[in-house]
Amino acid sequence: MLGALLYLRLTSLKNQIVTRAKRLRQPKYFLGALAGLAYFYFIFFRHLGGPPGGRGTKRAAAAQALNTLPAPEALAATLPLVAAFGALLLLVIAVLAWLLPSDRSLRFTEAEIAFLFPAPVTRRALINFKLLSSQFSILFTSLFFTLISNRWSFLGGNAVMHAFGWWFVLSTLNLHYTGAALTISRLSAGGVSPRRRRLLVLGGVLLVIFATLAWVWSDLRSPDDEDVAGFAPFTHYLLGILDHGVLGALLIPCKFILGPFLAPDARAFFFALAPALLVVVGHYAWVLRLESVSFEEASLALAEKRAAAVAAVREGKHPFGLVQSKGRPAPFFLADTGRPELAFLWKNLLSTLPYFNVRVFAIAAAVILVGSRWFLGESPADQALRAGVMIFAVFAAAYILVFGPHLARQDLRSDLQNADVLKTYPLPGWQLLLGEMLTPLVILTGLAWLALFAAVLAFPTAGRFASSLAPGVKPALALGLAVLTPLLSALQLLVLNGATLIFPAWFQATRGNTGGGGIELMGQRLIFFVGQLLVMLVAVLPAALGGASVFGLIWLGFNLAGHAPLATAPGLVCAALVILVVLAAEIACALWWLGQRFERLDVSAELRP
What we know:
2 domains
């Protein structure tokens, strides 16, 4: 029976590879594959091999800078400390498997549930089948991590040894999570209530933690002058704490797992294989002994959750935001008559998280206002805190403007599969598109305004930077940014929704894909991102040039009149107005053009699966 299941797994893998190879005949996937391969080449493979002298002046400068770092022998001396802390991290992950059990230990697809569960297959065979299936993803992940860790020259070894090392780590963690989940399922089936089970697990973990801390505390001594005299003595002191007592005993299996990865040479690698295999085989035997545990119901429940998550992704919602459907009040009162765009705003707000409303935004603004008066004073320490809060708020606003439109998808990207229904509405295309864009536009503008509000309130009131600003510059700059924020967000949303209309087939291939993605789909996302940056640059450049020209003229006029210090505030206001007009004109033209594209969209031809 296991041979038949292995044949099923290998045949499925072969068909998946063949399907992906065949779809490269389509230009949208072929170009995406080229972009994905180019990304991997320039990031990981470009500097493999070749003479060192042909890597350019930057590579030579980097190599010269590396010569000033500690010698590889000194770095290799830290491997025992790296092994100790790595083992401690693995121990923490293993404990979390019991405190926070995962329901994804045995993940069966809907097809496997339909065909394998009714079949005359034992639970042990099903467990072996899923463990074998997980090895394919573990092998791929191990190879990917090897590409990253191969640059850590202080570890020693080579790429093959690192690949085997990652396999041991990932396979052990997968087996441990599976065994922990099945053990917890057995406790629940034996009449142990979830509350009692959590108390038992937490009590056992706390007992081990307290015993470990008591043992460490009894052996712990404060470091003396010899322990902190250098890096090597201090490393020896830390190892003395981590390698003794209960903690040291608990870390031994974890160190066995890390042994092949941290082996400095081939001899140490082969000696580390036997202990690592012993831990993996022990975990595998533990999982097989739990074959009597019934996991069918949990697999069905997980399949339902996965189907709901896939449906949410296809509708443009975040899968982690899935909650049980409950009645919720309307975001605002929708009149029987009025602008149709508001109806789209009302509809799409109902599909967002419930805290995106005016009341929550007002409470957040009040908290920011009170916090700025409570925590930010006028002392030198508070001035430094002001500068830190202001920088953080400015970066948050920039992040919302650049990446927020990719996350807020309650627009045409969510309703594209309903385009045939939208086209029946007695509305022009530009009005439909504007209505679809209003919800993410309102949410992103509100979040960006909160960040700007925090930046303005945290602006330092003393210091060289604050004293160098002319009167009225700060409110003019804040007002200009606040006015331009919705236009910049609208421009970003137009680019993304325009890409959805112009390349609907590409867009359908890059969202909610249940086939595991692939390098070609990753390349398509890279193409979309680079295209968005280019379009945004072309759109913002004329407005920026116009605003800069007006600011220069105003500054020149004030300078000729002998009032140069007073030119900044009115120059910023006039520049913001010019940028506002140019961006508004571009947005209006783009709305009209994309609306025409939407009216000519042939749903049956473009969105064919």
